[in-house]
Design brief:
This protein has 321 residues and is of the alpha/beta class. The protein is 46% helix and 11% strand. Helix 2 packs parallel to helix 12 and helix 3 packs parallel to helix 4. Bound molecules: manganese (II) ion.
């Protein structure tokens, strides 16, 4: 494997744009031209920036909002094409790329079938879901067939942010968006939305029903490792149904370093979840590769744990050989 570093590096939340799917995106989903150029590049520029940073493998996933905001029929049709094209991209560089499926969640039954097709026929490593599906959180019972299929296929589902619900944007963020558009996205809005999605998945009971489910969160767990004690404690107070939030969360969830290269946040995640549940990722091209790899190199962490984070955990959980 060509890398300038002595460690293999697998990055698992790395995005691209499918030219057909992005035609269905709204103006709110527009990205600056430098980002668009990188998202649309699945060859020379991407590989050069991987090489420069020493990243061996990118696990590719579509950027938000993916296939979550389409009508059911278009979602099924488009997702199949998106995944077929991603499979072709991976075939051009099978040593450097792997893939997470885009699922047509607006049609949950089709999404479960598409996940199976992507894993069994296209060799994908799991799936990515971006935010709400047409306003509905992913823990809704109608989506449980997708959880069931993921568990039986033994592949993870990556719960990735997308723009918050419009009512949330209006109430929580609108006043500051002219001066600080990042507030509704990566600075805060994404975190609140995705942490809420994750907590709701634990509360829904779906993880007890299908015990093999693995859920991945980016950004070192969207704040949940930092708040795990308090969430667990508060949900154990009188008046709440019996649940060990900590046990269920710790059994099913994994977190990645995407866009959160913070020593204290990583230390907290290791303390709460254990190093076997932490996977390296960058969030390219929204975040540059170099700072992520350089941060890992500079960490005061033993080599064995560093290797787990940089590659071994991804190989085990995503079945990358
Ligand atoms: Mn991302």
């Amino acid at each position: 494997m060509a890398t300038k570093r002595d460690q293999q590096v697998i990055a698992i939340e790395e995005h691209y744009f499918d030219p057909e799917l992005t035609q269905h995106f709204s103006s709110a989903d527009e990205v600056p031209s430098g980002l668009r150029q990188r998202l649309e590049d699945v060859g020379e520029l991407r590989l050069r920036e991987m090489d420069e940073a020493g990243i061996d493998i990118q696990v590719l996933s579509h950027a938000p909002p993916g296939t979550q905001r389409l009508d059911p029929d278009s979602a099924s049709l488009l997702a199949a094409g998106v995944n077929d094209r991603l499979a072709s991209i991976i075939k051009t560089n099978p040593q450097r790329f792997a893939g997470l499926a885009s699922l047509p969640t607006p049609d949950a039954a089709a999404a479960a079938d598409e996940l199976e097709r992507c894993v069994n026929q296209l060799g994908f490593k799991g799936a990515i879901i971006h935010g709400l599906t047409n306003g509905t959180f992913f823990d809704d019972k109608k989506f449980w067939p997708i959880f069931e299929r993921a568990a039986s296929l033994d592949v993870p589902i990556y719960i990735h942010p997308a723009l918050p619900h419009p009512a949330v944007v209006d109430t929580y963020y609108q006043d500051y968006l002219t001066d600080y558009p990042g507030l509704e996205t990566a600075a805060w809005g994404f975190t609140v939305e995705t942490a809420t999605a994750a907590i709701r998945i634990v509360l829904s009971g779906v993880l007890e029903k299908y015990p093999g489910i693995k859920i991945i969160l980016g950004h070192l767990g969207e704040g949940i490792p930092f708040l795990l004690w308090r969430i667990d404690h508060a949900l154990s107070r009188p008046g709440n149904k019996s649940l060990s939030f900590r046990d269920v969360f710790s059994e099913h969830f994994y977190v990645t370093t995407s866009g959160n290269f913070s020593d204290p946040a990583l230390l907290c995640s290791i303390q709460e979840m254990g190093v076997d549940r932490i996977l390296f990722s960058v969030d390219w091209p929204f975040v540059a590769n170099d700072p992520g790899v350089e941060w890992m190199e500079s960490l005061h962490l033993n080599n064995e744990d560093k290797t787990k984070i940089l590659s071994e955990n991804a190989k085990r959980i995503l079945h990358i050989s």
